[in-house]
Amino acid sequence: MSHVNQHISQLREDFMKGELSEKTLYKSPDLQFEQWMNDAISAKVTEVPACNLATVDSQNKPSSRIVYLREFGDNNFFFYTNYESRKAKDISENPHVCLTFFWPELERQIRIEGIVFAKADKEKSDAYFNARPRDSKIGAWSSPQSRVLQNREVLDTFIDINSNTFHNKEIPRPDFWGGYHIKANYYEFWQGRKNRLHDRICFTLGDNQTWKIERLAP
Ligand SMILES: Cc1cc2nc3c(=O)[nH]c(=O)nc-3n(C[C@H](O)[C@H](O)[C@H](O)COP(=O)(O)O)c2cc1C
């Protein structure tokens, strides 16, 4: 282990790719997010929509995992998952969540905090589910996400059963699978800079529904 520890303790990137300035910043975090999303797509960042979703359960125990952001706009964010998973249980106990994106190719991080406002509309979840490849649909039906499996064969058996059940048939969205709708109340845009003197600008939603913009120390 010691050589790995030595390696990671000495890894140091100097971030030089850009700066984030109040002069060019959009006054709306939604537009700023869209601009950075567009930049990430143009820069061919790997896994642009992958973000860390952090949740906290009723015992104040945090947990996090990567999910794909599938839609955003007007400070709303949507991702899709299993409604019986661990994250779903956490969300049912405590709707406060965080999303964090890290795009190393641009030396950028975006942090979003918000509240799971609702499950996505059934029509929205259906539309997204219907657009997925057939094998992903079978996968959604077959995986009791976050539950213990005795072994891999158990999962393979579920897949075989569902493949037979839906053979030559349309595959509907399972009721236990769909989207979540997050309403953001905080954003932080982070641009890596030289000598760890990064730019951090955050937007906080006030009671009057306007965004307060502040710069944070790196
Ligand atoms: C790049 C990437 C994207 C992922 N996207 C999703 C997703 O959109 N929805 C999802 O339920 N799980 C996704 N996962 C799997 C989750 O990280 C996680 O393993 C799963 O949702 C179970 O989490 P839970 O037990 O905390 O509920 C993704 C994993 C990776 C690495």
List keywords for this structure.
single chain; 218 residues; alpha+beta; Pnp Oxidase, Chain A; six-stranded antiparallel beta barrel; globular; binds flavin mononucleotide
Describe the structure.
The chain is an alpha+beta fold and 218 residues long. It has a single domain (14-215), classed as Electron Transport, Fmn-binding Protein, Chain A (Pnp Oxidase, Chain A). The chain has helices spanning 2-10, 29-42, 86-93, 122-130, 134-142, 152-165, and strands at residues 50-56, 62-73, 76-82, 96-103, 108-119, 177-191, 199-205, 211-215. Strands 1-2-3-6-5-4 form a six-stranded antiparallel barrel. The longest helix has 14 residues, at 29-42. It is globular. 21% of the residues are buried.
List the helices and strands and how they pair.
Elements: H1 2-10, H2 29-42, E1 50-56, E2 62-73, E3 76-82, H3 86-93, E4 96-103, E5 108-119, H4 122-130, H5 134-142, H6 152-165, E6 177-191, E7 199-205, E8 211-215
Antiparallel strand pairs: 1-2, 1-4, 2-3, 3-6, 4-5, 5-6, 6-7, 7-8
Helix pairs in contact: 5-6
Bound molecules: flavin mononucleotide.
Residues 47, 50, 63, 65-68, 79-82, 85-87, 145-146 line the site of flavin mononucleotide.
